[in-house]
Structure formats: structure tokens, C-alpha cells
Amino acid sequence: MSPQFVDFDGDGDDDIVCGIFDGSPHVSYWDNEREGYLQPVGIVDKEGRRIVLNAWWNFDESKWDETDRCDPPGGAPANGHLTSAIAFDYDRDGDYDLVLGDHKGGYVYLRRNEGTNRAPKFASRNELVSAAGAPMRDEGTVATIRAVDWNRDGVLDLMVSGMGDPYGKSAGGGVAVYLNETSTGESRFGTPVQLIAPSPKDSEGAPARPDAGLHPDAVDFDGDGDLDLIVGGYSMWQPAQRDLSDAEKQRATELRERLEELRAEMRTLSARAAKAREGLEGDAAQQAFADAYDKIRPQMAEITKELSPTQAALDELEPRPQRVSFTWLYENLTK
Amino acid sequence: MHTPRFLVALACGATLSSFATAQRALFAAPVMLRAGEKVCGKGRLYPSPVSYDLVRDGRPDIVVGDLRGHITYARQLEDGTFAAEQKLKDVEGKILDFGNW
């Protein structure tokens, strides 16, 4: 969830716009009289319907749902899940349209505002945003989008960042900027310029950069006249492995074996609880599983109680790969 | 700048002319951004920072959203450092919560 501070309703104060994981954009309006933010509400289209790509959280039925009602004419290039959104006057008609980021397929979409900021009327369908004649897309799927005048020509460009492989060893996320090549009328974007290359995830010893789920903003952080980047994301690194004595190696082996025993016990218990719902359906199956799980809960707690310190002791000897989120500053050295 | 440098790379398909017009950027190796005694956004689910003068004192603060839908802000102090993060609340003093899924 990337907050964007923008006067979305045109009343003179900045509101907070963002896309969230439920698959739709939201806004927290600033209350001018009481001087504070109001709890967020969904941004809807001109028919009062939620603005989504394909995946959306169905609040009424408490489940994930799918729709193609918002697809561009001719269909979407891939099944999409909106998790980021910014207000952006794409066609320079004086009101904010919405640019939407797709966390699933990696595409960027436009939802045009056919009204005004004071009385928005968002279109019923998404449009694909293009760059240099092809759909704008981050292969690592979109983490977020920012509007920024990167080349200081007075025109807002689009900065798009990637999720990358969030847990595994495949390429991580990067940050690219798409320069806006027009200053009036419809925006037109050029080829992407990679500001931060997708991470190869090769950090050893200590975290060295954000590797996955990059969420940037561009700001002249040090006041030297160029735009720096502040970037949130997960760093993934392999801590240094020190040389172990023979006794420590033996201890590590014992700890690994004990961990395996504990995990096997957990699997056995879980399977026993799952077996309780065999032959049952619906609520009866769920209730049977819940009852069975209640019976094994004390044993599970005992195992967990031993599991954590055992793992910690092994980590001390043989550090596991780490994955922790931080915020980073990339200082622009151009000036 | 005392930190190592690296040159940003072109995305696949980008041309030399686009590279030139983009005002090629050179960044220092990244450093962690601190807020109070901690690294800003540390341990949050997908922290997303933005620079914004939230407290309206003329100094941009660091505002951080996350996957849970919560927002924190680290106020920029007079010396340019950032205070510890605190949660952004609504007009009634409740935590502003975008995480309604």
C-alpha cells in the first residue's frame, strides 16, 4: 500500500490515495473543517461499482472473486490483481484519472475520469497503458507506481517498481521510469529507463539493497538539485558462515536431526486432525477438524516451544538466509 | 561522495537516445534510512515510503505505508534526521486503516 498525497477531490488539501490488496483503489479524504484524515473509502466508477482488474476480495462472501467486467475491449492480456493506484491526469483535461498497477500480470492500466475532481466519473473499463508502442509492463509484476518529473521537463513521468520473486532465488525487483514524451493532451511514454536493476539476490554477509517488493519514491533528499530515491523493500542475504569446530559440527548435526523429528511430529498431528473431516462436507467437516485440532493443540504448543530455541541454536552455528524489510536511500550522484 | 558507485543499466529494448534523454543517473550504493533508533520501515510488510511534509513545518517527513494498510510517519527534525516512526491517525484519533480486506 503506497500512499500518494494528492488533492484528489480538488478542495485545496491533500488526500491520501492508494491501491490496496483487496484489489481496488481507496482514498482517505482530508477533512478541512476538523483538520484530519477520514477513514478510507473505496473509489468507485461512474456506476458506483468497485474499480478492479480481475481479482477482488468479495466482502459480502468473504472470499476472493474474479471478474472480467472491467477488462479493456478485446480482453486483458493477463489475469490481473490491482494492488497499487495513483491519481494522475493522464489526458491533461484538468482532472485526475487513475493509473493502476497489476501485482499479478505486471501490466499498468488507466481508468479514465470522465467527470471532474469535484464530481468524478470514472469509466467502467480499464485501458492498457503503453510505452514505446507496447503495453507497459514489469516482468517482476508491479509493486507500485509513482508520478514523478524525473527529467525535470515540467511533465510528470511514471516510475514503476517490481515485486520480483518475493521469496525464492529468481530475480528480484527493480525500478524503472517511463518518460512522458508529450506535454499536452494524451500522455505518451517512451522506453523504460532502469533506475535500479532487478536484484540478482547475491548479497552475502549483510543486507546490501532492497531485493524484492521494491516501493520507491523520488525526492531531492539532500537538496542538491537532483532526484534521489527512497526505496522500501525486502532485503535477502546469506549471513557469513564461520568455521565450526568439530564439536560445533556435531552439535549442528544433532540440532538438525532434532528439528526434523519435531517437524515430523507436527506433520503427524496435523494429518490426524485432517483425517477427522474425511467423509464429511461443509460446516460438519470444518467443525470436525476444529474439534480434532483442539485435541492436538497442547501437543503442538509443546513442539513449537522446543522448535524455536532449537532452530535459534542451529542458526547460531549455521545461519540461514535472511529476509527482512527496510527502507533505503539511493543518493543520486548526477550533480 | 564516499560510497561506491554503480551505473544504472538500461532496460531491455531501450535505446541510446532514450538513455541520453533520460539524463542518465548515477547512484551511490544504497544506505539504510534511519528513523529514531531504528531503520525506517524495518520489519513491516512491504514498506512503501514517500516523502511528504505531513506535519507542515516546511521539512519533508518520511511517510511509510504497508501491506496491512497502516501508515506511519517519521518527522524530519531541524538537524535533518528523522524522529521515530509513529502511526498516522484519523481525525478522531483512531489509527488510519486501509487494510479492510
Number of strands of chain B: 9
Number of DSSP helices of chain A?
2
Largest sheet of chain A: 4 strands, antiparallel
Cα-to-Cα separation, first versus last residue of chain B: 44 Å
- Count all strands of chain A and give the number: 22
Largest interface: A-B, 70 and 62 residues
Number of helices of chain B: 1
| Element order of chain A: H for helix, E for strand | EEEEEEEEEEEEEEEEEEEEEHHE
Report the average pLDDT across residues of chain A.
96
Shape of chain B: globular
Biggest sheet of chain B, strands in spatial order? 6-7-8-9
Based on secondary structure, the structural category of chain A is alpha+beta
Low-confidence region ranges of chain A: none
User: Helix fraction of chain B?
Assistant: under 10%
* Structural class by secondary-structure content of chain B: mainly beta
Q: How much of the polypeptide of chain A forms β-strand, as a percent range?
A: 25-35%
Cα distance, first to last residue of chain A?
32 Å
Task: Please state the CA-atom Rg of chain B, rounded to the nearest Å.
Answer: 18 Å
H/E series of chain B: EHEEEEEEEE
Question: What is the percentage of strand-forming residues of chain B?
Answer: 25-35%
Name the strands of the widest sheet of chain A in spatial order. 1-2-3-6
Description:
The complex is a heterodimer of chains A (335) and B (101). Chain A is an alpha+beta fold. In chain A, 20% of the residues lie in helices and 32% in strands. Chain A has helices at 246-275, 282-317; strands at residues 4-6, 15-19, 25-28, 30-31, 36-37, 41-42, 55-58, 63-66, 82-88, 97-102, 108-111, 127-128, 130-131, 134-135, 142-148, 157-162, 175-180, 189-196, 203-204, 212-219, 228-238, 322-330. In chain A, the strands form seven sheets. Chain A has a four-stranded antiparallel beta sheet with strand order 1-2-3-6, with no helix packed on it. In chain A, strands 9-10-11-12 form a four-stranded antiparallel beta sheet, with no helix packed on it. In chain A, strands 15-16-17-18 form a four-stranded antiparallel beta sheet, with no helix packed on it. In chain A, strand 1 and strand 2 form a beta hairpin. Chain A is globular, with a radius of gyration of 25 Å. Chain A starts with a strand and ends in a 5-residue tail after the last strand. Chain B is mostly beta strands and 101 residues long. Chain B contains one helix and nine strands. Chain B has one helix at residues 16-21; strands at 5-7, 26-28, 31-32, 34-35, 38-39, 48-52, 61-65, 71-74, 86-87. The longest helix of chain B has 6 residues, at 16-21. Chains A and B meet through strand 5, strand 15, strand 17, strand 18 and strand 20 of A and helix 1, strand 2, strand 3, strand 6 and strand 7 of B. Strand 22 of chain A pairs antiparallel with strand 3 of chain B, so a sheet runs across the interface.
